[in-house]
Every structure is written in structure tokens, then in C-alpha cells.
Structures
1.
Amino acid sequence: MATDVAPVPGHGTPDAALPFPPEEYRRLVGPTDLDAFDNPTGAPVFAHLPPAAYASVLDFGCGCGRIARRMIQQEPRPARYLGLDRHAGMIEWCREHLSPRAPGFEFQHHDAFHERYNAAGAGSGVPFPVAERSVTLVVAWSVFTHLLEADAVHYVRETARVLADDGVALTTWFLFDKRGFPMMQAFQNALYINTVDPTNAVIFDVDWLREQVHAAGLVVTRVVPPAVRGFQWIVELQRAVPGRASQAFPDDVAPLGIVRAPLD
């Protein structure tokens, strides 16, 4: 386990120092650089969001606390935070090292099946353990990029169920245009790159995503195209209400590059 600690802005006693997650957990969630887990300035983690968005945060796929740790350092902290992940070991680490230093921050094991990380899980379609319209910010960072199609549909609908009227869901996706793949059947909307673990990286048809968002009663309100062509799109979702316009997906004109999915 990691022993390095960093002081929390505004909470400068030694007891408030936050440990960094161990490297093996950081490797599983993506970046291993400690800077990706740190917020020394105390700035809002998502600076473009209004302060009210941080009233009640649901961090779906929280892993070993990459976003949670930065939100704990944020001034002010979210009033309520719930982190969910199907990797029980990461949840236990967050409970032991983060929750005691941050009142209002809770971590729960999301008991959905994964062949490697939660083989005894309860299958697919596990609901979020929160009430309807009770969450002001849903974060699903690098989550829909690792879900099978049926699970993605379920969690788009769960996001719609729990999102408050003025809430925001910040999600990331790998996207493609199925019209350029004429061999695909009408019911086929995703591409998988790994025959051993299909969830290693999942790429969804952009029109399919629009349809699922609309069917769930949501609307796309902000789109940030990838920094590397074909990599993660940031897609923000809100409830569909009168006067809330849907944003179009711009062309992906980012430079070509390599950002490989992890093999383990």
C-alpha cells in the first residue's frame, strides 16, 4: 500500500494528509502519475460546472479515488459524495484511506459482474443505490468506454433516473459512425477490440448514443471531441426540459496518435 501523503488545501494538519493509491490500483484505472490524483490548488475538479453541481456527487466507476481524492482537496468540497465501483479492493482502500479524512464521502461496492474484477457479482442491470432525482453531478469517467451494449443502455437509464432536474452527467465515450461499416447489422451498435475481455475498450455508434440518450429522457448539452483522434469524447447530459437544446457532435479532427487500452 502507498505511504506517500499530500496535504489537503485548507486542511493543513498532518491528520488531514491524504495518501496516494498504490501503483497497482493506479495502473488499473489508467494514469499512474501522482499528478493525476492531486489537486494542490483546491480548484473545482470540473471548473466549467456551476458550484451547485457539487451538492451531491455520484462517481460511478470511482476506482481507487482518482476523482474523489481531488474533490476532497477541492474548496469547497462536495456536500455529499458517493463513489461506486465493482472492484472491491479499490473500494476498501478508499474506505480506509479517504472516507475517514472527508466527512460526507462514502464508497460502496457496486456488485455488478465482471469476469476478472467481480466474478461473483450479481450480473448486469444493478441499480444505483440512490433515490430518483437526488444527484446533482453524475461522473462516469472511463466507464461507458468499458461496458457492453446492454449494460450501457441500463446505466444511461439509471443516470436519467437519479439525475436532479438541474443536474449534470459528465460521461466519456469511444464513438464511431456506423454508416461507414456497411457489414454491420441493424442490432449491432458497438465495436470490441479484445476477444479475451470485450470490455477492454468498447466503441459505440454515435447515432445509437443519441437514440439512447433521447429514449432515457436526457439531452446532450455539451460535447468535447477527443484530443487524439478516435479517443475519448466528453459528453455531458441533462434532463430534457423545455428550452434545453441538444448539442451536435462536431467532427473528430484531432491529430492521429496512440493511447492504448491496458492489457491487464
Note: The chain has five helices and eleven strands.
2.
Amino acid sequence: MLLIKNATVYTMEDDKVLQNTDILCEGGKIAKIGQGLSADGAEVIDAAGMVATPGLIDAHTHAGGFDLNSPDLNEMTDPVTAQLDALYAIDIHSPDFEEIHTRGVTACCLIPGSANVVCGTGFVAKTAGKNTIQDLAVLHPAVMKCAMGGNPKGYGKRGKAPQSRMGVADIFRSTLRKAKTYMEKQEAAGGDKEKMPPYDAQCEALLPVLRREIPLKVHCEQFDMLTVIDIAREFGCDYTLEHGWACNLYADELVAGGGPVCFGPIGIAEGYGELTGGDVAYLKELDERGLTVCLITDGPICGPQVLAISAGDAVRYGIDHMRALRMITINPAKALRVDGRLGSLKPGKDADVVLWSGVPALETSAHPLYTIIDGAVVYKE
């Protein structure tokens, strides 16, 4: 049992800031939030002068499985590897994974890389407090990672399809069509094993997508975003748009499509083609028009500290501070469908709390003093 006393609390349940407020954590959950709380036998943290927020959530990272010399999250042998599972590629003892919780990030979505059109499933996990990645997992599977654009086009250099955006879109659509036919045959069989189609691991992995149990999580920028919306609409799938550079050019289409935009990382080296439009200011209109938008690190491309930095950059570009904080807390929780447990401070939710030296995203010197996951301190400065 843990009792946090006298904090300035941003619950992210609304825009209110609670002064001199206590948070009681019990059994891994938030039990109470209020003033003057007490609990016999509880560990007490006097958080006077500290700011409490929900743990930050990174909706898109490859940390723990993306050694650039041996990328275990990139199976670059076939453009369609839907049957693969990121759970089996994550080393929680790698330096990039072990750093995450020290930066106030308490949960993240760990996903395969973007070398393939259909890369495999990703999952949501806590970032510390358990001995294995299996125990850290919160939602598994959570997403089906896919990719448009330049990355999967790399197969063309090896004499394989795809080598063009036309080829990427065709393989994406054909893969979903095959899985849909597989699903329809299963349904028509009505449980009769003799009539069931032969087992297909790739199609099986895509059934949760077609049943809208998990979304497509698609690496895309520029006009690739429109292709994703078209394909998702054709097959009745939910989706999130990953990176989303130049999203300002397609605001009407993105809002009409409704899929969350997981934007970033910020600070890309602007060049040409895909590497343009990485300005976080572009999120302001999408956010104001009701689209769920969140900020990502693409770790280890960028470190976990970039989440708070990105939110601060959003404020610098005129996004309301509370809205920017939502982009690294409750919004990614919603995009990942774990907002029933994560993303805000509320009795009954997981006791994932960060105590900061100042107001994150507003004060540039703000940094985590405590990171608390499931009601236990996993980091203390």
C-alpha cells in the first residue's frame, strides 16, 4: 500500500488541477484520490512541491528488440509476416528498455519494425516491475503492425515485390482479401471440421483485425495515409496512422476517417518525399476537430525522454498545455484500447503515477522524481 501526500495532481480525467491532494494506491490500483487521506501501514511519499500525473504512454516503440546491428523486430524475409509476434523479440534487460521507466513512461506499445507490408502483432506492456515481458504485458495482442511507403518498397532491391507504392497497396489489399475469404469459409463451415479451410497462420492472425478486435497500426506518411483509410474502409477494419508526417495536408480526410494519429517522432531531418512535414504544430487542427492524436518516440530511434519533449514542443506551437498532456497519457491509452486501465488517475485504474519536479510539457526543467507502476516505486531520483 502506498500513500502519496500533498501533490499537485493532474488526473487527466478532466482539465482540473487538484492542489494539495493525496493518492492512495492499494493492490496495484488507485483506491482513493482526495485530501487528508490516511492508511495504516502504508508507505508514505510526501509529494509537497511535486506534480503527479498518470504514467506516460508511448503508443509506438521498438525498444528492447531493435538493435540496429541485429533487428529482432524486423523479419525481412517476406513482405507478409502477419503470423509473427513482437512478444518474442523483446529483451527487457536491454539498455534502451531499462531506461524507459526512468523517463516517466509506464506503458508502451511494442511493435515489429516496418520492413514488411504486414509485419506482425504488437502488444501493450508496462515498462518495469516484473521479471519477464510476458508478466509485463497488459494487452496481447493489441495491434497488427503494417507499413506503407519506402520501407516495404525495399523488397524491390532484392528482386521481389513490392518495389512501388502500387505494389505495397496491392499486397496489403490482397492479404486482407485472403484472410476475409478464410474467415468466411470458417463461418460457413458452422463448426464442421470437415468443411473448415486448411489452417493458415497468417490468416488466423488477421482474424482479430477483420472482427475489429484489434486495429491495423500502419506506418505511413504523406498521401499513404489516404491509402490506409481506403483499405480500412473497404474491409471494415479499425486503424491508427503511425508517424503521420504532413497530416496537415489531409485534415478533412483524416477527421472523416476517424482513426487515431500517432504522430512523430518530432525532429526528423527534413529532406524530401516522406521525410517532410514532421512539425508537431500540424496536430493542433486535428486535435481541435476531435481526432484522437498522440505523440510517439519510435524508440530506439528517439529515447523515451522525447515524449515529454514532444508535448512541450506542442505547447510551444500553440497547443493548449492540458491538450498536449493528453497526447502522452489518455489519448494513447484510447488509441491502444487500454483506457479502462491506463492513461488517467481515477479510483479503480492501475496505480501508474509519476511524480515530477515541475509541470511536464510546461516547465522545461521538469523531470521524474518517482515513477510508480502498479502502486510500487520502480524509480526514485
Note: The chain has ten helices and 16 strands.
3.
Amino acid sequence: MALLEVCCGNPESVDAAVAGGARRIELCADLECDGLTPPMAWLRAVREKYPDLTVHVLIRPRDGDFVYSPEEAEIMDLQIESALQFGADGIVVGCLTPDGDIDLPLMEQLVGLVESFNLATELGASDLCHAANDSHFFPGPARRVSITFHRAFDRCRRPFEAMEQIISLGCDRILTSGQAPTVEEGAARLRDLRQRAHGRIGILPGGGVTPSNAARILDLTGCTEIHASASETVDGKKMTSTEKVKAILQSIRNR
């Protein structure tokens, strides 16, 4: 069965996603502006409460475009280091140039942090990772942290060239709507991306996924995972709906 990743904008939404059956989430803050880096206290609490849940963490220091200054790059460095220390299973990040190309130097820098962490865990360097004797670190087994290039991809001017660059960086997947307002409108491009990738990178459809279209998007694109907020607005705040998560999962199972 295809995997559903639920985008959660607060700890309460994580509870709702898990109650609905989600096995992987993207943790962020401020979904109202399409997500920012969450407080690390949230990650720590979620990691301790749901040790078996796969938790990917969004790294986005501010609202707006994905063109970052050297000062913002330093902030992203620190955010990634903290996310790794507190038990993230995946890092979700994306950086562009003003012309709409991949910012390769900055992406190489950020991906390098994750690769160094993965190498350290492989070598058993627990003091560099989430040491069990330090309460500030997640005391779990060694793990390989994945990297998702997020929907900054949808602003790339040359998507197929950008995909090749993202593959060369060593990323695991691209979260994208197919450069369209919604995944339904971008289904053909999503299918093309998946076919051209030839299994070298995962394509994660996201943007406008609902219980009524999730199965169709997977069928149209041939993708094996899908991303949704499954949310509803409560007092002006986007909150994950347990019932929507259940409904999306049910639609995927019934394909």
C-alpha cells in the first residue's frame, strides 16, 4: 500500500494524525504560511511520545521565497543540527537562487550536515548523535536520516534539470505538486518526473490532496507515497483532522 505522509502544524495535529493511522508525518509550524521550522521542543515531545512514528522536520526559517542570505543559511545549519539531535528521521528543505535554479552551494552545505550525521551513526559515534546518557538527545538506535527537497521545487524554472541536480545532491525525494496549483492539475508533470527519475529519487505528490482524489493521484502518477495536511480550520488555525487522515488512508487501501 502507498504511504501517506501527514503535514502537522502543531503537536495537537500530530496526535490527530496518529489517531487517524498515520505512520509518517512532516512536523512544522505556521501552516497558515505554508509551514516554518517548528520549535525543537515540539520535536522532542513528539519523539518521546511516539517513538515508532517516522518524523520528518521542515527547515524553513521564514515565510516568503526560498532565496536565503548567508545569515539565514547559518540559522538553517543550526536548525538542522538541532533536529538531528532531537531525533528527526528526515529533513525537509529547499533553497533556490533568485533566477529560480537550485542553490547548489547552500544545498550541498545543508545536505552535508545530514550526511555527516548519517556517517557518524554508521560508525557508532553516539557521542555525536543522540547519546542515551544526555537528556537533550533522543536515545534511540542509529538511524539513517532522509532528505526531502520540498515544494521550492515548484518554483524552479527548469524542473527536469533541477531534478537531476537534486538527485546529484543525494536527496531521497522531491515534494511537489507538479509545478501546478494542485496535484490534480499537475498529475501529468508528476508522472513525467517519476518516469524520468527511473527510481533514482522518489516523487512525493503534495498540494491539494484530499480523501476524494488521493487514490486517483497515485493511479495517475504511479507514485508510491503521497503528502497531505488532512486539515480543517479551527479558530483560524489549521488543524489535522483524524477523520480526514482515516478517509485518505481508506481510499488508498481501496485502490
Note: Residues 104-122 form the longest helix (19 residues).
